[in-house]
Amino acid sequence: MSTEDLGAFLRRQSPSALADLLIELANDHPDVHKRLQRLQLSNSPSKLAAAFKKTLAGWRRSQKYHDYKSVGAFAAKLELWLDQVARELAPKDPALALDLFEAFIEAVGQRQHRGGFCLQDFSCEGAISHVCARRRAA
Protein backbone atom coordinates (compact mmCIF):
# COMPACT_ATOMS: atom_id res chain seq x y z
CA MET A 1 0.00 0.00 0.00
CA SER A 2 1.49 3.34 -1.02
CA THR A 3 1.50 6.44 1.18
CA GLU A 4 -1.19 8.06 -0.95
CA ASP A 5 -3.40 5.00 -0.56
CA LEU A 6 -2.92 5.12 3.21
CA GLY A 7 -3.64 8.85 3.29
CA ALA A 8 -6.82 8.42 1.28
CA PHE A 9 -7.89 5.54 3.51
CA LEU A 10 -7.32 7.56 6.67
CA ARG A 11 -9.25 10.55 5.30
CA ARG A 12 -12.28 8.30 4.79
CA GLN A 13 -12.29 7.23 8.45
CA SER A 14 -14.56 8.85 10.99
CA PRO A 15 -13.03 11.29 13.47
CA SER A 16 -13.97 9.01 16.36
CA ALA A 17 -12.26 6.00 14.74
CA LEU A 18 -9.10 8.06 14.22
CA ALA A 19 -9.26 9.41 17.77
CA ASP A 20 -9.59 5.86 19.14
CA LEU A 21 -6.62 4.75 17.05
CA LEU A 22 -4.48 7.66 18.26
CA ILE A 23 -5.39 6.95 21.87
CA GLU A 24 -4.45 3.30 21.40
CA LEU A 25 -1.13 4.24 19.81
CA ALA A 26 -0.42 6.81 22.54
CA ASN A 27 -1.03 4.18 25.21
CA ASP A 28 1.34 1.75 23.50
CA HIS A 29 4.07 4.15 22.35
CA PRO A 30 5.51 6.88 24.61
CA ASP A 31 6.77 8.93 21.65
CA VAL A 32 3.27 9.06 20.16
CA HIS A 33 1.92 10.10 23.55
CA LYS A 34 4.49 12.92 23.80
CA ARG A 35 3.66 14.09 20.26
CA LEU A 36 -0.05 14.22 21.03
CA GLN A 37 0.66 16.16 24.22
CA ARG A 38 2.59 18.69 22.13
CA LEU A 39 -0.30 18.80 19.67
CA GLN A 40 -2.54 19.83 22.58
CA LEU A 41 -0.18 22.77 23.17
CA SER A 42 0.07 23.81 19.52
CA ASN A 43 -2.23 26.82 19.94
CA SER A 44 -0.07 28.16 22.77
CA PRO A 45 3.49 28.62 21.52
CA SER A 46 4.77 29.65 24.96
CA LYS A 47 3.46 26.41 26.51
CA LEU A 48 4.84 24.39 23.60
CA ALA A 49 8.23 26.07 24.05
CA ALA A 50 8.09 25.26 27.77
CA ALA A 51 7.59 21.58 26.93
CA PHE A 52 10.64 21.64 24.66
CA LYS A 53 12.63 23.51 27.34
CA LYS A 54 11.77 20.78 29.85
CA THR A 55 13.44 18.18 27.63
CA LEU A 56 16.45 20.42 27.11
CA ALA A 57 16.75 21.04 30.86
CA GLY A 58 16.72 17.30 31.47
CA TRP A 59 19.62 16.81 29.07
CA ARG A 60 21.46 19.67 30.74
CA ARG A 61 21.05 18.18 34.24
CA SER A 62 21.79 14.63 33.20
CA GLN A 63 24.99 13.12 34.54
CA LYS A 64 24.83 10.17 32.16
CA TYR A 65 27.94 9.59 30.11
CA HIS A 66 27.25 8.47 26.55
CA ASP A 67 30.03 6.22 25.32
CA TYR A 68 30.62 5.22 21.74
CA LYS A 69 27.94 2.51 21.97
CA SER A 70 25.14 4.84 23.06
CA VAL A 71 26.16 8.16 21.57
CA GLY A 72 24.62 7.44 18.17
CA ALA A 73 21.18 6.93 19.68
CA PHE A 74 21.59 10.06 21.78
CA ALA A 75 22.66 12.11 18.75
CA ALA A 76 19.53 10.87 16.95
CA LYS A 77 17.42 12.14 19.88
CA LEU A 78 19.10 15.53 19.63
CA GLU A 79 18.46 15.72 15.88
CA LEU A 80 14.84 14.68 16.38
CA TRP A 81 14.36 17.40 19.01
CA LEU A 82 15.74 20.01 16.61
CA ASP A 83 13.42 18.80 13.85
CA GLN A 84 10.42 18.87 16.20
CA VAL A 85 11.14 22.45 17.30
CA ALA A 86 11.55 23.49 13.65
CA ARG A 87 8.36 21.73 12.53
CA GLU A 88 6.07 22.37 15.49
CA LEU A 89 7.15 25.66 17.08
CA ALA A 90 9.07 27.70 14.49
CA PRO A 91 6.08 28.26 12.16
CA LYS A 92 4.00 29.57 15.08
CA ASP A 93 6.66 31.62 16.91
CA PRO A 94 10.03 31.92 15.19
CA ALA A 95 11.52 34.00 18.01
CA LEU A 96 10.77 31.34 20.63
CA ALA A 97 12.18 28.66 18.32
CA LEU A 98 15.33 30.70 17.81
CA ASP A 99 15.73 31.04 21.58
CA LEU A 100 15.43 27.27 21.92
CA PHE A 101 17.96 26.61 19.16
CA GLU A 102 20.44 28.95 20.83
CA ALA A 103 19.83 27.35 24.25
CA PHE A 104 20.34 23.96 22.62
CA ILE A 105 23.72 24.96 21.17
CA GLU A 106 24.80 26.26 24.57
CA ALA A 107 23.56 23.15 26.42
CA VAL A 108 25.18 20.68 24.03
CA GLY A 109 28.42 22.63 24.14
CA GLN A 110 28.41 22.57 27.95
CA ARG A 111 27.76 18.84 28.04
CA GLN A 112 30.54 18.12 25.57
CA HIS A 113 32.96 20.39 27.43
CA ARG A 114 32.37 18.73 30.80
CA GLY A 115 32.73 15.28 29.27
CA GLY A 116 29.08 14.27 29.30
CA PHE A 117 29.44 12.71 25.89
CA CYS A 118 31.51 12.90 22.76
CA LEU A 119 29.61 13.45 19.57
CA GLN A 120 32.15 13.21 16.81
CA ASP A 121 29.55 13.36 14.06
CA PHE A 122 27.29 15.87 15.81
CA SER A 123 28.55 19.41 15.92
CA CYS A 124 25.26 21.24 16.36
CA GLU A 125 25.07 21.64 12.58
CA GLY A 126 21.32 21.17 12.67
CA ALA A 127 20.80 23.79 15.36
CA ILE A 128 23.14 26.24 13.70
CA SER A 129 21.41 25.85 10.34
CA HIS A 130 18.02 26.32 12.02
CA VAL A 131 19.27 29.47 13.78
CA CYS A 132 20.71 30.88 10.56
CA ALA A 133 17.54 30.14 8.61
CA ARG A 134 15.37 31.80 11.26
CA ARG A 135 17.59 34.87 11.41
CA ARG A 136 17.51 35.22 7.62
CA ALA A 137 13.70 34.93 7.68
CA ALA A 138 13.36 37.57 10.43
Describe, in plain words, how this protein is organized in 3D.
With 138 residues, the chain is mainly α. 75% of the residues lie in helices and 0% in strands. It is built from 7 helices and no strands. Helix 4 (45-61) runs antiparallel to helix 5 and helix 6 packs antiparallel against helix 7 (125-137). The longest helix has 20 residues, at 94-113. The chain is globular, with a radius of gyration of 17 Å.
Count of discrete alpha- or pi-helical segments spanning 4 or more residues: 7
The best one-word shape is globular
Count of DSSP E strands?
A: 0
Structural class: mainly alpha
Helix content: over 70%
Content of β-strand:
under 5%
What would the average pLDDT be, to the nearest integer?
A: 81
What kind of sheet is the major sheet?
Answer: none
Radius of gyration: 17 Å
Order of helices and strands: HHHHHHH
Measured distance between first and last alpha carbons: 41 Å
Unreliable stretches (pLDDT < 50, length at least 5) are 113-118
Give a nutshell description of this structure:
The chain is an all-alpha fold and 138 residues long.
Describe the protein's topology.
Layout: H1 3-12, H2 15-28, H3 30-40, H4 45-61, H5 71-89, H6 94-113, H7 125-137
Helix pairs in contact: 2-3, 4-5, 4-6, 5-6, 6-7
Which labels suit this protein?
138 residues, mainly alpha, 75% helix, single chain
